[in-house]
Specification:
By secondary structure, the chain is an alpha/beta fold. It contains twelve helices and nine strands. It folds into two domains: 103 residues, no CATH class; 191 residues, no CATH class.
């Protein structure tokens, strides 16, 4: 979101766009400064301020606001008042995500874990009891840095597949924040399949945020009554490895608290045709994501066109 603010504010207000490299360097510097500021700011105050700044940003970045509005319209409908409130809440939630992530850098895992609750925790143990690891699937909602702290506090081994951002400095910045809680990561474009298999063989949770396709490996599913391309990775990996597929979401509450919800294992029953099995399983994943997003539409952190 900060990148969008810099890009759009510059283009619309002073008509002198920053070169991409310069913009990325500025964003990285702002992130590093924000970690320092967050360290000394009381958590609840930071939550309140960040949410207000997020709402203000929703009026500043007109193109991003239009994109979020277009995405959320498929979920909340086109009632102007309801849609406008959902969009403002989305920007508030996203700004709070940044603050909490920056604040976590100066907190211990057990401190962070106390900020939330969990339901279905026994399903993690159930999945790992098979000795094949487990593939955790989730859409882009809430704050998975809280999930990393929860795993650390509860001694649950986990590795996450992450997007390799174009800016190496920003990518490394976020990886360092994740490493604060001992989180291991796999870049999505760094020959990830053998590394994902290795994590499962170590009987770890393998977290894949899998509602956006980052490469050509995608499959068409029905999502909010629209045909869209979903990443194939989670379904492919589950069918090949036979590791259980564990739905899980980490949602944020307006007061800066969190809730982890662990759903029942998805059915991996096969019917003989890999292509058909992958299609069925991908649709089950999409259905689960729909349920999560429908419950908390403003926490779906997708600020690029999704249904186009």
């Amino acid at each position: 979101m900060i990148t969008q603010i810099l890009r759009e504010a510059t283009l619309e207000q002073v008509k002198k766009p920053l070169f991409k490299f310069e913009r990325d360097e500025l964003v990285a510097s702002l992130f590093e400064l924000s970690v320092t500021v967050a360290r000394y700011m009381p958590y609840d105050l930071g939550v309140s301020i960040s949410r207000r700044l997020g709402v203000a940003a929703s009026y500043l970045v007109k193109a991003s606001r239009a994109t979020v509005e277009s995405n959320l319209k498929r979920i909340v409908g086109d009632d102007p008042e309801r849609l406008s409130q959902a969009v403002k809440n989305a920007f508030a939630s996203y700004a709070m995500y940044y603050f909490s992530t920056f604040k976590f850098a100066s907190m211990e895992a057990d401190e962070v874990t106390k900020l939330g609750t969990v339901s279905g925790k026994e399903r993690m143990a159930e999945a790992l009891s098979q000795g094949k690891g487990a593939i955790v699937i989730s859409p882009h909602v809430g704050n998975w840095d809280y999930g990393a702290a929860f795993f650390r506090t509860n001694n649950i081994p986990a590795t996450a597949v992450v997007e390799h951002l174009e800016s190496e400095r920003i990518y490394n910045f976020f990886n360092e924040l994740r490493a604060h809680f001992g989180a291991k990561t796999i870049a999505h474009d760094d020959n990830p399949f053998p590394k994902m298999i290795a994590a499962l063989e170590r009987n770890e949770l393998l977290v894949i945020i899998s509602d956006r396709s980052l490469d050509a490996s995608s499959i068409e599913v029905d999502f909010f009554n629209t045909k869209v391309n979903f990443p194939l990775g989670a379904a492919f990996l589950a069918l090949r490895s036979k590791a259980p597929l564990l739905p899980m979401s980490v949602t944020s509450l307006p007061n800066g608290r969190f809730h982890i919800d662990v759903g029942p294992l998805l059915n991996l029953e096969t019917r003989g045709s890999f292509k058909r099995d992958a299609q069925i399983l991908s649709q089950r994943i999409a259905n689960y994501f729909e349920d999560v997003i429908r419950r908390s539409p403003s926490q779906w952190h997708v600020f690029s066109p999704f249904f186009e």
